[in-house]
Predict the structure.
Amino acid sequence: MERLLILSLGAGGQAAAPGAVVAAKGIIRFPELSAQKGRNGAVGIDEVTEYFLVGSLASWLLALGGIALVLAALNRCPRDR
């Protein structure tokens, strides 16, 4: 759903809206990530935080790639004027 939302907002010309989606995901997941950091007294990046960051980056890159493909396809289509 996140990728689809970012793709539709970006393809629709709303450049700042995907940033709001990314920020909202970080805010929603913050308590989970903070709770994992305090486990066993270790402070630092643990597996859950790394998994979240890598997964989110891959998801956002996939959505941005989709936006690029949609915009490239729209620019190649002949338009009726």
